[in-house]
Design a protein that fits this description.
9 strands, four-stranded antiparallel beta sheet, single chain, Rossmann fold, about 350 residues, globular, alpha/beta
């Protein structure tokens, strides 16, 4: 009888223990999920963020206090608010974001560059314009060394993949609809940032803000879609810039690791894009933005494939009567270290020199 009572007692204790553990796990999991969803450090679930930015720019304001938003979805919203046909559209990566209307004072320019752009990005954003019935007179395409690397691991284009597949006249496969963002709901690392952001969200201090100043404490989108960096990045000393360039080549060079050959698939899709632009009588210009001299020295030593990308682009541009400006080589353009923000981003005055260059 005593053994039976002891067994019942231990069973009850075990049930209580399991209940407590289960309850704790439920509370912990719920807290993690709720804070990651509502704090949402990278705005993965707050689809109104990009709309707010586009609406601010629509009123010819600049928008600042911006961070961690989906740049591709922003482009979709930004283009949807356009009411005037642009003379020039810029498609490229963060390396072309500094091209502004001021570089073309007599023309209406819209800069649709997105960080880490791939050829898929450029195709998708071009297709957004096509679907809206907007045909610019000229498109400047910023081409990066990683553009034709099959192993570049640039997957951010998938948030506007419908437009990419639409251009290719392929039925959209929902396989590209990544579930990766939902994994962040249960991520402890995302929780750390989201918990901080939740406080800012409640106070409204993380909301995009209209500004009439181009230069602000944080990154600022101008009404033409171009970008000015925040105060700290803009005002770095030359010594700090050099440290950034040195740090850049210590690790993997962005987007060009495992770049063994120029992808036939990507090159073919790029050619289809160019042919479509030509059929629509759009003037095309290729733009190659150089690397910091220290980084380019490393590229010449260890990444000869990048030199071939530039050679092939020059030949393609010549054969297809397309203008090409700039070079990955800063020495050709006489751009020294003072023309760079870091290892791969040129300052505005460097961009002006590139735009005035011609092969």
């Amino acid at each position: 009888m005593a053994k039976t009572n002891l067994f019942i007692f231990n069973f009850k204790k075990m049930k209580e223990f399991i209940f407590k553990i289960t309850s704790f796990a439920f509370v912990l999991g719920s807290t993690l999920l709720l804070i990651n969803y509502y704090g949402d450090a990278a705005h993965l679930f707050d689809k109104g963020y990009e709309i707010k930015m586009a609406e601010i720019l629509q009123d010819n304001n600049y928008v600042t206090n911006i961070s961690n938003y989906d740049e591709r979805l922003f482009q979709k919203e930004f283009i949807s608010t356009r009411t005037h046909q642009p003379d020039i559209v810029v498609l490229g990566s963060s390396r072309t974001m500094q091209i502004t209307t001021e570089d073309f004072p007599d023309e209406l320019l819209i800069n649709n560059s997105v960080s880490g752009a791939s050829v898929e990005d450029i195709i998708a954003i071009y297709q957004i314009y096509r679907k809206k019935g907007i045909k610019p007179k000229k498109i400047i395409i910023g081409i990066d060394p990683w553009s034709f690397n099959e192993n570049n691991q640039r997957n951010r284009w998938q948030s506007i993949a419908d437009y990419y597949y639409d251009f290719k006249k392929q039925k959209t496969s929902h396989e590209h609809k990544s579930l990766a963002k939902y994994k962040e709901l249960f991520s402890f690392s995302y929780f750390q940032e989201s918990a901080k952001n939740l406080v800012r969200k409640i106070s409204g201090s993380n909301e995009p803000k209209a500004s009439n100043r181009k230069l602000n404490r944080t990154n600022t989108k101008l009404f033409d879609g171009s970008l000015t960096y925040g105060e700290a990045y803009r005002n770095m000393s030359q010594k700090e810039v050099e440290k950034k360039a040195e740090s850049y080549i210590l690790g993997e060079i962005y987007g060009v690791e495992n770049f063994e050959r120029i992808s036939n698939r990507i090159w073919s899709e790029f050619d289809d894009l160019i042919n479509d632009m030509k059929e629509n009588q759009i003037e095309i210009e290729f733009l190659l933005v150089p690397y910091h001299p220290l980084v380019y020295k490393k590229i010449k030593m260890d990444y000869n494939i990048i030199l071939k990308v530039e050679e092939d682009l020059k030949e393609y541009a010549n054969n297809n009567h397309v203008s090409l400006k700039g070079s990955f080589n800063p020495n050709l353009l006489k751009l020294n270290e003072t023309y760079f923000f870091d290892g791969m981003h040129c300052k505005e005055r460097g961009i002006k020199i590139i735009l005035d260059s011609q092969y």
